[in-house]
Amino acid sequence: MLRNVYSDEDMEGFQQPPYTEASKDHKLWPLVQSALCRVYDPEIPVNIYELGLIYKVDIDDKNVVHVKMTLTSPGCPVAGEMPEIIADEIKGIENIGKVIVEVVWDPPWDPSKISETAKLQLGMF
User: Fold this and answer.
1) Can you name the residues that pair with 57 across neighbouring β-strands?
2) Which DSSP letter does residue 10 get?
3) Are the C-beta atoms of 90 and 54 separated by less than 8 Å?
4) Is 8 helix (H, G, I), strand (E, B) or coil?
5) Parallel, antiparallel, or unpaired: how do β-strands 54-59 and 65-69 relate?
6) Which CATH superfamily is domain 8-111 in?
7) DSSP 26-78
8) Which of these, 3, 84, 105, 121, is most buried using a 10 Å CB contact count?
């Protein structure tokens, strides 16, 4: 699994994928977003956030993070490991409570969920 470390300046270049819902007003959201951007799909050289695999991120008033995500396919080679990889990345954030990562298959992932920035990286234009 590839992981990169991004600075706050790097994060400015990341784009919200079109279908991701998030607790954007929560003070920890930028750090959670950054953590998600450090986890890469094993088969596509794009982070899982910009790839559109993260459908929803809720952060409650006790800093419990609930992530709903999908995978590019049910046969993903890290399907069983990915939730734990993501949870571990988020748990490294100071003041984070419990982290719950749920894999969902509805709606199914497709390339329309990829951010514009990632489409450029992948040469999809």
Assistant:
1) 22, 67
2) H
3) no
4) helix
5) antiparallel
6) Fe-S cluster assembly (FSCA) (3.30.300.130)
7) STTHHHHHHHHHT-B-SSSSSBTTTTT-EEEEEE-TT--EEEEE--S-TT-TT
8) 121
What confidence tens digit (pLDDT) does each residue in 41-57 have?
888 889 999 999 999 99
Residue with tokens 């929560």: 26
Q: Which two tokens stand for residue 76?
A: 């993903």
| Three-class DSSP category at 91 | helix
Determine the 3-state secondary structure of 6 from DSSP.
coil
- Residue 97, CB half-sphere, CA atoms under 13 Å: how many? 11
Could you tell me which residue, 82 or 3, shows the higher pLDDT?
82
Sign of CA dihedral 94, 82, 40, 29: negative
What's the pTM value of the predicted model, to 2 decimals?
Answer: 0.84
Q: How confident is the model at residue 2 (pLDDT cuts 50, 70, 90)?
A: very low
The encoded tokens of residue 109 equal 């992932």
